[in-house]
Amino acid sequence: MAPSSSSPLPASPLLVLLMVPLLLAMARPCSGVDAIGTYCAKNGTSAETQASIDQVLAALVPRASAAYYATATAGRSSSAVWGLAQCRGDVPRQDCSLCLAAAAKEVASSCRGSSDGRVFYDYCLLRYSTANFIGLADTGYTLILLNTQNATGVDLAAFDRAQGKLMSRVASEAGDAANKGLATDTTRLGSDGGGAKTTIYGLGWCTRDITAADCGLCVAQAVAELPNYCRYRRGCRVIYSSCMARYEVYPFFFPLDGADKSADEVGQCDKIVLNA
């Protein structure tokens, strides 16, 4: 699949409505060490191109483990391949290295013989393609994970407004070059009965090959999708190949404030894939 232009465009609402009933997966745990999404193009590759893919994957893991981000190329002409790997900037280095190694193994196994492979984890992402996607903001593939539970102990309308304001700030902060493609923020709101306050944690994250301006636009597009699928939900994330937006009611970015998320907070997630 060819990358989109550097100006993100919204998906067709009609396409979304038609595809959601078909593409909702069974509920799954919202956290874990396994890949949260994998995309493999249906068109195949030659032996020479597959050799280039193997070279790119082998180069990406050590480079990105050292710098949290790397690109690589291999091959020439019809066998040329481009690759990118990146960890979230807040993740500890050891977790980054482990994530990238798992990502390379997963995409090599799942997408063997495919001209375009992408794999997404909580802490990292890795992709390769026979088309040069470096520097292009790609929103063509959309992965949405939404908690199956609504927020509890709060007024749902107030929760929705607070989440919306939080994620709007996150999108704006993601477009600030000083943040290097990673924006995190929190907000708190009172409970229905005057008890403990609920904290909402928000994050926006972009691949480092796109500009700060495109990062802000990409995260803003992801944030704009949240009301379409995640209204009142305790957590949700919209993932593109170049960026993502996520919010939860438990700490999920580092530092974790010394709080462990309970199984009840994590809950279960539905998965939606658009434009695959």
Automatic annotation (TrEMBL):
Domain Gnk2-homologous: residue ranges: 31-133, 139-252
Can you name this protein? Predicted protein
* InterPro entries xrefs: CRR_secretory_protein (IPR050581), GNK2 (IPR002902), GNK2_sf (IPR038408)
Name the predominant localization: secreted
Gene Ontology CC annotations of this record: extracellular region
Q: Which gene encodes it?
A: LOC123452551
Ranked from the top, the taxonomy reads: Eukaryota, Viridiplantae, Streptophyta, Embryophyta, Tracheophyta
Q: What keywords were assigned to this record?
A: Repeat, Secreted, Signal
Q: Where is the signal peptide?
A: 1-32
- Source species, domain of life: Eukaryota
Presence of the UniProt keyword Transferase in the record: no
Tell me where it resides.
Answer: Secreted
Q: Which family does the record claim for this protein? A: Belongs to the cysteine-rich repeat secretory protein family.
